[in-house]
Design the sequence.
């Protein structure tokens, strides 16, 4: 656990970058520091590994004041990832990753073996190991940066806008990757960003800072979106808070109907009498092929003869209510198809089911927020 | 009387041992100052990169030295280091080399991107180790580029020393001039140029070997 105890940083020129900050970063969780430019995020982060020394208060690492630890020793036990990756241009990728193990005096073979293991872990082709950093794309460099930070298996990871220099698609995949890694490694992570979407996506808890280095709110993402502490936080969260909050509500509560699927090989004549306006056509593995409107059923043949309408799915047990809602918007049927991890249909959430669930969620918000 | 040919090969054959001696003398007088200049420029350059306020005055002084005519400096030094000694030539050349190399070392060190330095700090490098393992290696291409300039200009400047009695291959120019005899002049020019080209080539090769990462970057 990392504890900020009334931490203040006043730079030599009098700028107060962080003002009396007190918060706890729980072990094994991702805590995100988010806020506008210049609000003291980087300063706060760097006071943890003493790249910047606090001018007031204390930072405790599992109860030990970081000021009592020699900086190089302290830093070798804390992974650090920055925006431009900061890779050493003159060292091969494998040696970049093995940097901290080398500093800790591991023998070369062991350090390199460990580096290779990590490259694999962050999803990099091992062919990259013998390249130099400039031969990698920005996204790949960033992965190397993460691998390097993890090399000596530090319990704590500090990340300063690590994904903000890459394009949105790569960023999304790096974020997924980080969450996957974290589910395996359970590091104590402090993640800095100015992107609130990234903050709510990654954070177990989100600390919103305002300029002048004051803590505006510390909460889990769903609470943050539902109950912003004040106008500053509300404005910072921006639009679509309601929709975005659905990301934190499981889609499992949706009532599913199982009587709406038809095999692609079924005779349409058998479907004549149905009162359902839309049916899901499935293949022999029970995977969805598309929607068919009962009014468009042909005289004879099978649903496979008809052009099917597009569909959207969400994975039951994994996806959020937001994903389910999104799925309904992808189909003229207005319903979302629930599938299992392997893509087989487990049921259909019709619009009424979504309405019920959305009403429940909205009801749970309470009347505080404007 | 037959026209005097540009090159008389028989003269070269007869005087070869002499020419060889001059060549060796030239190499020593040109390159020892570059090596010493580098050894001095490294700590001064480090200081200049560390304390930026030191940098401008140092470069200023070095530029003034660089602008002094070499012949004048040679003559001023004669009472101290003696007429026709290697030192008379090498001392000023050392300063010329430093004038090129100090800025090269400073530029090399400042070419280390800030995020690279920061991440070295963050990973727990001690300052000395960071300098030796990260900053200096990254500075190498820029320093080597400076070294090429210093080596080539040093090789060409040695010849001026002939006017104070010690100029390596430069002696051939004076000799040829005084006797209105072209062969030594041609030999002197060819060998000086060859020497400069060889030194430059060696340094380029050294750069390829030492910094594969920077070669790759240029050709990428
Ligand atoms: N070395 C310094 N000397 C003086 N002031 C500084 C120094 N470093 C940062 N500051 C000031 O401290 C404040 C906080 O800076 P910090 O870098 O922590 O912000 P940040 O939240 O990380 O911003 P960004 O999102 O732009 O990275 C800013 O006003 C900045 O100008
Ligand atoms: Mg910052």
Sequence:
């Amino acid at each position: 656990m990392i504890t900020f105890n009334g931490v203040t940083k006043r730079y030599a020129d009098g700028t107060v970058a962080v003002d009396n900050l007190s918060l706890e970063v729980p072990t094994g969780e991702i805590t995100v520091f988010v806020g506008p430019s210049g609000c003291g995020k980087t300063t706060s982060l760097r006071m943890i590994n003493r790249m910047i020394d606090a001018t007031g208060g204390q930072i405790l690492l599992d109860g030990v004041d970081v000021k009592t630890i020699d900086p190089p020793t302290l830093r070798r036990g804390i992974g650090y990832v920055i925006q431009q990756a900061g890779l050493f241009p003159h060292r091969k990728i494998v040696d970049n990753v093995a940097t901290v193990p080398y500093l800790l005096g591991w023998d070369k073979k062991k350090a390199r073996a460990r580096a290779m293991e990590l490259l694999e872990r962050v999803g990099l082709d091992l062919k990259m190991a013998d390249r130099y950093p400039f031969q990698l794309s920005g996204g790949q460099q960033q992965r190397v940066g993460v691998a390097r930070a993890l090399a000596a298996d530090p319990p704590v990871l500090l990340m300063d806008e690590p994904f903000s220099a890459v394009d949105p698609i790569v960023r999304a995949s790096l974020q997924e990757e980080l969450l996957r890694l974290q589910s395996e490694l359970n590091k104590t992570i402090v993640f800095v960003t100015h992107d609130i979407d990234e903050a709510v996506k990654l954070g177990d808890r989100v600390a919103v800072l305002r300029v002048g280095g004051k803590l505006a709110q510390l909460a889990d993402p769903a609470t943050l979106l539902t109950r912003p502490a004040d106008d500053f936080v509300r404005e910072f969260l921006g639009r679509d808070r309601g929709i975005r909050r659905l990301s934190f509500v499981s889609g499992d509560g949706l009532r599913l109907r199982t009587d709406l699927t038809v095999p692609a090989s079924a005779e349409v004549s058998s479907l004549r009498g149905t009162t359902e306006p839309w049916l899901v056509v499935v293949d022999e593995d029970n995977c969805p092929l598309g929607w068919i409107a009962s009014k468009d059923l042909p005289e004879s043949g099978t649903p496979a003869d008809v052009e099917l309408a597009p569909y959207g799915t969400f994975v039951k047990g994994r996806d959020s209510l937001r994903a389910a809602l999104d799925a309904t918007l992808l189909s003229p049927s207005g319903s979302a198809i629930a599938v299992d991890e392997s893509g087989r249909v487990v049921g259909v959430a019709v619009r009424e089911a979504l309405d019920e669930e959305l009403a429940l969620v909205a009801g749970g918000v309470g009347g505080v927020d404007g | 009387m037959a026209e005097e040919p540009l090159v008389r090969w028989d003269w070269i054959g007869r005087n070869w041992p002499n020419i060889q001696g001059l060549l060796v003398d030239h190499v020593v007088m040109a390159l020892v100052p570059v090596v010493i200049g580098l050894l001095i420029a490294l700590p001064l350059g480090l200081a200049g990169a560390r304390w930026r306020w030191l940098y401008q005055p140092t470069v200023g002084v070095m530029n003034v030295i660089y602008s002094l005519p070499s012949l004048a400096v040679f003559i001023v030094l004669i009472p101290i280091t003696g007429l026709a000694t290697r030192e008379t030539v090498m001392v000023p050349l050392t300063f010329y080399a430093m004038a090129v190399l100090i800025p090269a070392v400073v530029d090399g060190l400042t070419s280390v991107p800030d995020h690279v330095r920061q991440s070295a700090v963050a990973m727990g490098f001690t300052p000395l180790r960071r300098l030796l393992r990260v900053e200096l290696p990254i500075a190498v291409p820029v320093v080597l580029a400076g070294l090429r300039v210093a080596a080539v200009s040093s090789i060409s400047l040695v010849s001026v020393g002939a006017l104070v009695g010690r100029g390596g291959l430069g002696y051939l120019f004076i000799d040829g001039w005084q006797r209105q005899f072209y062969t030594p002049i041609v030999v002197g020019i060819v060998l000086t140029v060859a020497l400069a080209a060889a030194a430059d080539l060696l340094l380029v090769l050294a750069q390829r070997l030492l910094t594969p990462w920077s070669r790759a970057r240029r050709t990428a």
Notes: Chain A has a mean pLDDT of 92.
